[in-house]
Amino acid sequence: MRGGVVGCGYWGPNLVRNFLGQESLTGTSCFDLDTRRVDTIVKTFPNVKPCRSYDELLDNSDFIAVATPVHTHYQLALQALEAGKHVLVEKPMTLHSHESAKLRKLADSKDLVLMVDHTFIYTPAVQKMKELLGNGQLGRALYFDSVRVNLGLFQSDVNVIWDLAPHDLSILLYLFDERPVALQAQGRDSFINGVHDLAYLTLFYADGFMANLHLSWLSPTKVRKITVAGDKRMIVYDDMESSEKVKVYDKGVERIDTEELHNEVRVQYRIGDIYTPALKNEEALRKETAHFLDCIENGTSPMTDGVSGEWVVKILEAANQSLKSGNRVELDSE
Protein backbone atom coordinates (compact mmCIF):
# COMPACT_ATOMS: atom_id res chain seq x y z
CA MET A 1 0.00 0.00 0.00
CA ARG A 2 1.25 3.49 -0.88
CA GLY A 3 0.45 6.58 1.17
CA GLY A 4 0.23 10.25 0.24
CA VAL A 5 0.27 13.33 2.47
CA VAL A 6 -0.96 16.67 1.18
CA GLY A 7 0.15 19.59 3.36
CA CYS A 8 3.69 19.69 4.76
CA GLY A 9 3.31 22.47 7.31
CA TYR A 10 2.75 21.90 11.02
CA TRP A 11 1.02 18.49 11.13
CA GLY A 12 2.04 16.96 7.82
CA PRO A 13 5.58 15.99 8.93
CA ASN A 14 4.13 14.14 11.93
CA LEU A 15 1.89 12.13 9.63
CA VAL A 16 4.78 11.37 7.28
CA ARG A 17 6.97 10.18 10.17
CA ASN A 18 4.28 7.85 11.47
CA PHE A 19 3.37 6.45 8.06
CA LEU A 20 7.05 5.68 7.43
CA GLY A 21 7.01 3.60 10.59
CA GLN A 22 4.18 1.37 9.34
CA GLU A 23 5.47 -1.89 7.85
CA SER A 24 2.46 -2.37 5.57
CA LEU A 25 3.37 0.70 3.49
CA THR A 26 5.58 0.27 0.44
CA GLY A 27 6.03 4.00 -0.13
CA THR A 28 5.04 7.48 1.07
CA SER A 29 4.71 10.61 -1.07
CA CYS A 30 4.00 14.24 -0.20
CA PHE A 31 2.84 17.45 -1.83
CA ASP A 32 2.51 21.07 -0.77
CA LEU A 33 2.00 24.26 -2.76
CA ASP A 34 5.02 25.63 -0.87
CA THR A 35 7.90 23.67 -2.40
CA ARG A 36 10.20 24.72 0.44
CA ARG A 37 8.09 22.63 2.83
CA VAL A 38 8.37 19.64 0.51
CA ASP A 39 12.13 20.10 0.38
CA THR A 40 12.28 20.13 4.17
CA ILE A 41 10.27 16.91 4.37
CA VAL A 42 12.54 15.16 1.88
CA LYS A 43 15.69 16.31 3.68
CA THR A 44 14.30 15.01 6.98
CA PHE A 45 12.88 11.80 5.49
CA PRO A 46 14.92 10.86 2.38
CA ASN A 47 12.63 7.90 1.60
CA VAL A 48 9.67 10.20 0.91
CA LYS A 49 8.82 10.85 -2.74
CA PRO A 50 8.12 14.54 -3.52
CA CYS A 51 5.27 15.31 -5.93
CA ARG A 52 4.90 18.39 -8.11
CA SER A 53 1.08 18.45 -8.09
CA TYR A 54 -1.90 17.04 -6.24
CA ASP A 55 -2.78 14.96 -9.30
CA GLU A 56 0.69 13.38 -9.18
CA LEU A 57 0.22 12.64 -5.49
CA LEU A 58 -3.10 10.91 -6.25
CA ASP A 59 -1.48 8.85 -9.00
CA ASN A 60 1.23 7.66 -6.58
CA SER A 61 -1.01 6.85 -3.60
CA ASP A 62 -3.63 4.36 -2.45
CA PHE A 63 -4.75 6.72 0.31
CA ILE A 64 -4.47 10.43 1.01
CA ALA A 65 -3.91 12.17 4.34
CA VAL A 66 -5.14 15.77 4.20
CA ALA A 67 -3.19 18.10 6.51
CA THR A 68 -4.04 21.49 5.04
CA PRO A 69 -6.09 24.52 6.22
CA VAL A 70 -9.68 23.59 6.99
CA HIS A 71 -11.18 25.60 4.11
CA THR A 72 -9.35 23.28 1.67
CA HIS A 73 -10.36 19.97 3.30
CA TYR A 74 -13.56 19.45 1.37
CA GLN A 75 -12.21 19.87 -2.16
CA LEU A 76 -9.04 17.86 -1.52
CA ALA A 77 -10.91 15.01 0.19
CA LEU A 78 -13.62 15.04 -2.49
CA GLN A 79 -11.08 14.80 -5.28
CA ALA A 80 -9.31 11.93 -3.52
CA LEU A 81 -12.52 9.97 -2.92
CA GLU A 82 -13.65 10.50 -6.51
CA ALA A 83 -10.28 9.08 -7.58
CA GLY A 84 -10.95 5.96 -5.49
CA LYS A 85 -8.55 6.79 -2.66
CA HIS A 86 -9.09 6.22 1.05
CA VAL A 87 -8.91 9.46 3.03
CA LEU A 88 -7.64 10.57 6.43
CA VAL A 89 -8.58 14.23 6.91
CA GLU A 90 -7.46 16.67 9.57
CA LYS A 91 -9.95 18.18 12.00
CA PRO A 92 -12.37 19.83 11.66
CA MET A 93 -13.47 17.63 8.79
CA THR A 94 -14.92 20.52 6.74
CA LEU A 95 -16.20 24.06 7.18
CA HIS A 96 -19.83 23.01 6.67
CA SER A 97 -21.73 19.95 7.83
CA HIS A 98 -23.40 19.44 4.44
CA GLU A 99 -19.89 19.07 2.98
CA SER A 100 -19.01 16.49 5.63
CA ALA A 101 -22.22 14.61 4.82
CA LYS A 102 -21.40 14.55 1.11
CA LEU A 103 -17.91 13.17 1.77
CA ARG A 104 -19.31 10.52 4.12
CA LYS A 105 -21.94 9.38 1.63
CA LEU A 106 -19.46 9.32 -1.24
CA ALA A 107 -17.01 7.19 0.77
CA ASP A 108 -19.80 4.79 1.70
CA SER A 109 -20.95 4.46 -1.90
CA LYS A 110 -17.42 3.58 -3.03
CA ASP A 111 -16.57 1.33 -0.04
CA LEU A 112 -13.70 3.64 0.88
CA VAL A 113 -12.42 4.43 4.35
CA LEU A 114 -13.02 8.02 5.44
CA MET A 115 -11.42 8.82 8.77
CA VAL A 116 -11.04 12.07 10.70
CA ASP A 117 -7.79 12.82 12.52
CA HIS A 118 -9.20 13.23 16.03
CA THR A 119 -5.91 12.18 17.58
CA PHE A 120 -6.99 12.45 21.22
CA ILE A 121 -9.30 9.47 20.78
CA TYR A 122 -6.25 7.26 20.33
CA THR A 123 -4.45 8.39 23.49
CA PRO A 124 -4.14 5.82 26.28
CA ALA A 125 -5.88 8.28 28.62
CA VAL A 126 -9.08 8.57 26.54
CA GLN A 127 -9.06 4.84 25.85
CA LYS A 128 -8.93 4.21 29.59
CA MET A 129 -11.82 6.60 30.20
CA LYS A 130 -13.88 4.73 27.60
CA GLU A 131 -13.07 1.46 29.34
CA LEU A 132 -14.07 2.78 32.75
CA LEU A 133 -17.36 4.10 31.42
CA GLY A 134 -18.02 0.89 29.53
CA ASN A 135 -17.58 -1.42 32.52
CA GLY A 136 -19.91 0.64 34.67
CA GLN A 137 -17.38 1.88 37.22
CA LEU A 138 -18.78 5.42 37.12
CA GLY A 139 -22.41 4.35 37.29
CA ARG A 140 -24.92 6.66 35.65
CA ALA A 141 -23.13 9.53 33.87
CA LEU A 142 -24.19 12.95 35.17
CA TYR A 143 -22.07 15.50 33.33
CA PHE A 144 -18.97 16.16 31.22
CA ASP A 145 -16.93 19.28 31.92
CA SER A 146 -13.84 20.39 30.00
CA VAL A 147 -11.46 23.32 30.28
CA ARG A 148 -9.15 24.05 27.35
CA VAL A 149 -7.57 27.46 27.81
CA ASN A 150 -4.26 29.19 27.13
CA LEU A 151 -2.82 32.59 26.12
CA GLY A 152 -3.25 32.77 22.32
CA LEU A 153 -2.81 31.93 19.55
CA PHE A 154 -5.24 34.49 18.11
CA GLN A 155 -6.55 33.72 14.64
CA SER A 156 -8.48 35.93 12.26
CA ASP A 157 -10.35 33.25 10.29
CA VAL A 158 -11.75 31.05 13.09
CA ASN A 159 -12.92 31.72 16.63
CA VAL A 160 -11.82 29.96 19.79
CA ILE A 161 -14.59 27.36 19.51
CA TRP A 162 -13.51 26.23 16.05
CA ASP A 163 -9.88 26.27 17.15
CA LEU A 164 -10.08 24.38 20.46
CA ALA A 165 -13.47 22.69 20.80
CA PRO A 166 -12.95 19.91 18.20
CA HIS A 167 -10.60 18.14 20.62
CA ASP A 168 -13.10 17.98 23.48
CA LEU A 169 -16.12 17.44 21.24
CA SER A 170 -14.49 14.43 19.62
CA ILE A 171 -13.73 12.99 23.06
CA LEU A 172 -17.29 13.66 24.25
CA LEU A 173 -18.83 12.00 21.19
CA TYR A 174 -16.51 9.01 21.55
CA LEU A 175 -17.15 8.44 25.24
CA PHE A 176 -20.95 8.61 25.02
CA ASP A 177 -23.20 6.95 22.45
CA GLU A 178 -26.05 9.42 22.89
CA ARG A 179 -25.97 12.64 20.88
CA PRO A 180 -26.89 16.11 22.17
CA VAL A 181 -30.27 17.50 21.23
CA ALA A 182 -29.48 21.21 21.72
CA LEU A 183 -26.74 23.63 22.69
CA GLN A 184 -26.14 27.18 23.81
CA ALA A 185 -22.95 29.19 23.46
CA GLN A 186 -21.84 32.44 25.04
CA GLY A 187 -18.63 34.28 24.45
CA ARG A 188 -16.75 37.50 23.96
CA ASP A 189 -14.75 39.00 21.08
CA SER A 190 -12.39 41.16 23.13
CA PHE A 191 -9.91 42.21 20.46
CA ILE A 192 -11.02 41.17 16.95
CA ASN A 193 -14.59 42.06 16.06
CA GLY A 194 -16.61 38.91 15.38
CA VAL A 195 -13.82 36.52 16.41
CA HIS A 196 -14.63 35.21 19.88
CA ASP A 197 -11.57 34.59 22.05
CA LEU A 198 -13.55 33.36 25.07
CA ALA A 199 -16.49 30.97 24.94
CA TYR A 200 -18.65 28.71 27.08
CA LEU A 201 -20.46 25.97 25.21
CA THR A 202 -23.18 23.88 26.87
CA LEU A 203 -24.69 20.80 25.23
CA PHE A 204 -28.01 19.34 26.38
CA TYR A 205 -29.14 15.71 26.14
CA ALA A 206 -32.60 14.16 26.16
CA ASP A 207 -31.93 12.19 29.36
CA GLY A 208 -30.73 15.22 31.32
CA PHE A 209 -27.01 14.61 30.83
CA MET A 210 -25.10 17.85 30.24
CA ALA A 211 -21.71 18.74 28.78
CA ASN A 212 -19.94 22.04 29.27
CA LEU A 213 -16.85 23.32 27.46
CA HIS A 214 -14.80 26.32 28.63
CA LEU A 215 -12.56 27.62 25.83
CA SER A 216 -10.24 30.61 25.88
CA TRP A 217 -7.25 32.28 24.26
CA LEU A 218 -7.09 34.70 27.19
CA SER A 219 -5.89 32.56 30.07
CA PRO A 220 -2.58 33.27 31.85
CA THR A 221 -2.09 29.51 32.24
CA LYS A 222 -2.49 26.56 29.91
CA VAL A 223 -5.13 24.11 31.12
CA ARG A 224 -6.26 20.89 29.43
CA LYS A 225 -8.62 19.14 31.83
CA ILE A 226 -11.76 17.01 31.52
CA THR A 227 -14.03 15.86 34.35
CA VAL A 228 -16.61 13.12 33.86
CA ALA A 229 -18.91 12.60 36.82
CA GLY A 230 -21.05 9.57 37.51
CA ASP A 231 -23.27 8.72 40.44
CA LYS A 232 -20.73 6.13 41.63
CA ARG A 233 -17.31 7.55 40.73
CA MET A 234 -15.72 10.46 38.89
CA ILE A 235 -12.82 10.76 36.46
CA VAL A 236 -10.43 13.68 36.02
CA TYR A 237 -8.23 13.66 32.92
CA ASP A 238 -5.45 16.26 33.07
CA ASP A 239 -3.47 16.23 29.84
CA MET A 240 -0.87 18.59 31.30
CA GLU A 241 0.22 15.90 33.75
CA SER A 242 3.34 14.10 32.56
CA SER A 243 2.47 10.68 33.98
CA GLU A 244 -0.70 10.50 36.10
CA LYS A 245 -3.05 11.86 33.46
CA VAL A 246 -6.17 9.98 34.62
CA LYS A 247 -7.42 9.79 38.20
CA VAL A 248 -10.52 8.01 39.41
CA TYR A 249 -12.25 9.43 42.47
CA ASP A 250 -14.49 7.24 44.60
CA LYS A 251 -16.46 10.30 45.65
CA GLY A 252 -20.03 11.30 45.16
CA VAL A 253 -23.41 12.19 46.54
CA GLU A 254 -26.09 9.76 47.62
CA ARG A 255 -29.77 10.58 47.94
CA ILE A 256 -31.70 9.49 51.02
CA ASP A 257 -35.50 9.50 50.96
CA THR A 258 -36.82 9.80 54.49
CA GLU A 259 -40.51 8.91 54.55
CA GLU A 260 -40.74 9.49 58.28
CA LEU A 261 -39.88 13.13 57.67
CA HIS A 262 -42.76 13.75 55.27
CA ASN A 263 -40.90 12.60 52.17
CA GLU A 264 -38.05 15.00 52.79
CA VAL A 265 -35.10 14.37 50.49
CA ARG A 266 -31.61 14.52 51.90
CA VAL A 267 -28.19 13.90 50.45
CA GLN A 268 -25.05 12.54 51.99
CA TYR A 269 -21.52 12.72 50.68
CA ARG A 270 -19.36 9.69 49.99
CA ILE A 271 -15.61 10.11 50.26
CA GLY A 272 -13.50 7.15 49.15
CA ASP A 273 -10.16 6.36 47.59
CA ILE A 274 -8.41 7.98 44.66
CA TYR A 275 -6.49 5.77 42.27
CA THR A 276 -4.46 6.31 39.13
CA PRO A 277 -4.84 3.66 36.41
CA ALA A 278 -1.69 2.53 34.64
CA LEU A 279 -1.51 3.86 31.07
CA LYS A 280 0.53 2.53 28.19
CA ASN A 281 3.34 4.74 26.96
CA GLU A 282 2.57 4.96 23.23
CA GLU A 283 2.21 7.74 20.70
CA ALA A 284 -1.43 8.39 19.82
CA LEU A 285 -0.67 9.31 16.21
CA ARG A 286 1.28 6.07 15.69
CA LYS A 287 -1.72 4.11 16.98
CA GLU A 288 -4.09 6.18 14.87
CA THR A 289 -2.20 5.72 11.60
CA ALA A 290 -1.94 1.97 12.26
CA HIS A 291 -5.70 1.88 12.90
CA PHE A 292 -6.34 3.72 9.63
CA LEU A 293 -4.29 1.21 7.65
CA ASP A 294 -5.94 -1.69 9.45
CA CYS A 295 -9.38 -0.34 8.52
CA ILE A 296 -8.31 -0.12 4.86
CA GLU A 297 -6.91 -3.65 4.82
CA ASN A 298 -9.88 -5.21 6.61
CA GLY A 299 -12.73 -3.03 5.36
CA THR A 300 -13.76 -1.93 8.85
CA SER A 301 -15.07 1.40 10.11
CA PRO A 302 -12.66 3.69 12.01
CA MET A 303 -13.31 4.81 15.57
CA THR A 304 -13.23 8.39 14.25
CA ASP A 305 -15.27 7.88 11.11
CA GLY A 306 -17.09 10.33 8.88
CA VAL A 307 -20.19 10.28 11.09
CA SER A 308 -18.27 11.47 14.15
CA GLY A 309 -16.44 14.07 12.06
CA GLU A 310 -19.73 15.34 10.66
CA TRP A 311 -21.21 15.63 14.16
CA VAL A 312 -18.28 17.75 15.34
CA VAL A 313 -18.79 20.14 12.42
CA LYS A 314 -22.55 20.19 13.02
CA ILE A 315 -21.98 21.24 16.64
CA LEU A 316 -19.43 23.88 15.64
CA GLU A 317 -21.90 25.36 13.14
CA ALA A 318 -24.66 25.47 15.73
CA ALA A 319 -22.30 27.04 18.27
CA ASN A 320 -21.54 29.87 15.86
CA GLN A 321 -25.26 30.36 15.34
CA SER A 322 -25.86 30.49 19.08
CA LEU A 323 -23.00 32.97 19.60
CA LYS A 324 -24.58 35.33 17.09
CA SER A 325 -28.18 35.03 18.31
CA GLY A 326 -27.58 34.44 22.01
CA ASN A 327 -30.23 31.71 21.88
CA ARG A 328 -30.36 27.98 22.41
CA VAL A 329 -30.07 26.05 19.13
CA GLU A 330 -31.74 22.69 18.52
CA LEU A 331 -29.61 20.01 16.88
CA ASP A 332 -30.90 17.85 14.05
CA SER A 333 -30.43 14.17 14.88
CA GLU A 334 -30.10 13.19 11.19
How would you characterize the overall build of this protein?
This protein has 334 residues and is an alpha/beta fold. The chain has 2 domains: 2-117, 3-Layer(aba) Sandwich (Rossmann fold), CATH 3.40.50.720; 121-284 and 313-330, 2-Layer Sandwich (Dihydrodipicolinate Reductase, domain 2), CATH 3.30.360.10. Helices cover 34% and strands 30% of the residues. The strands form 2 sheets. The protein has a 9-stranded mixed beta sheet. It is globular.
List the helices and strands and how they pair.
Layout: E1 2-6, H1 12-20, E2 27-31, H2 35-44, E3 49-50, H3 54-59, E4 63-66, H4 70-82, E5 86-89, H5 97-109, E6 114-116, H6 124-134, E7 141-151, H7 160-175, E8 182-188, E9 198-204, E10 210-216, E11 218-230, E12 234-238, E13 246-258, E14 264-275, H8 284-298, H9 306-325, E15 329-330
Parallel strand pairs: 1-2, 1-4, 2-3, 4-5, 5-6, 7-10
Antiparallel strand pairs: 7-11, 8-9, 8-15, 9-10, 11-12, 12-13, 13-14
Helix pairs in contact: 1-8, 4-5, 5-9, 7-9
